[in-house]
C-alpha cells in the first residue's frame, strides 16, 4: 500500500507504545502534515495513546512537540511514591492531562479516538472508544500506566494499566480497511548483536530491555500475520535509544521522518 492509497481512502492511524521511543511518532506526523494525510480514526497504546489523544482534539505536530519538550523536564511530572504498587505517583502527570484535555469525553474529539488498556485484575484488553462515557484524561492515564512504574488507574471501579500488555500495536481495533501503523518497537527496535559491556550490570539491564522489546515485537507480528486490513507499516530505527531517554527527544523525533 502507498501514501496515494491513504490520500484516496479513509484510514486509521495506529500508534504503538514504547516509552520515549514513541516520540518518533512525531516525525511521522510531521511528514503526514506535509503530505496532507489526515486519518479518519486514531488508535493508540501508551505513549502512542498520549499522542493520538492530542491529535484527536485538533493539536498539530508542532503543538504536541512543544508539550513533549516541556514534559521531558523530569521535575514537571515525576513525583515518587513511597506506598502502593508503583514508583511514580500520577498527581503531576494527571495535572498535565487535566490542562490538555480538561473534562472532554471520549466522544468529544475532532477525530474518533480509541485507547488500548489492560484490566489488571482480569488481564483482558479494554479499549476505550467514543461509545464510552469516560474522560479522555482518564483513558490516557490508564493506557500509559506501566505496572510498577506508574500508578494503575481506576475507571468505573475497574483497575487499568498499560495497553502494551495486551496489544501494543492496535491494528485489530481499526474500523477502516486501510491502516497506517507506526511501530516504534518493531523490527528495527533491537540490535542484532547481544550486549557486551565491561560491567555485567549494564549487560543484564540491556538484556532485560531487549527481552521486553522482543516479546512485544512478536506480539505485534502475530497481530499483523492474521489481520485482514491493508496495512502500511512504518518501523523507525529506534534501537540506539532506550525507552526512558525522554531527554533525547530531538534525536528520537527525527527517527520518524522520511519513512512515508
Summed up, what is this model?
This protein is of the alpha/beta class and 260 residues long.
What oligomerization state is this entry in?
Answer: single chain
End-to-end span in angstroms?
11 Å
Uncertain stretches of 5 or more adjacent residues:
79-87
> Main sheet, how many strands, which sense, barrel?
8 strands, mixed
Query: Which range does the strand content fall in?
Result: 15-25%
| Cα radius of gyration in angstroms | 17 Å
Structural class estimated from helices and strands = alpha/beta
Order of helices and strands: HEHEHHHHEEHEEEHEH
- In round numbers, the mean pLDDT is 87
| Percentage of residues assigned to helices | 25-40%
| Mass-distribution shape | globular
Number of helical regions: 9
* Count of beta strands: 8
Structure commentary:
It is a single chain. The chain starts with a helix and ends in a 5-residue tail after the last helix. The longest helix is centred in the last third of the chain and has 27 residues, at 200-226. Strands 1, 2, 3, 4, 5, 6, 7 and 8 form an eight-stranded mixed sheet that branches. Helix 2 runs antiparallel to helix 4, helix 2 crosses helix 9 and helix 6 (91-101) crosses helix 7. It contains nine helices and eight strands. Strand 1, helix 2 (24-34) and strand 2 form a beta-alpha-beta unit. The protein has 260 residues and is an alpha/beta fold.
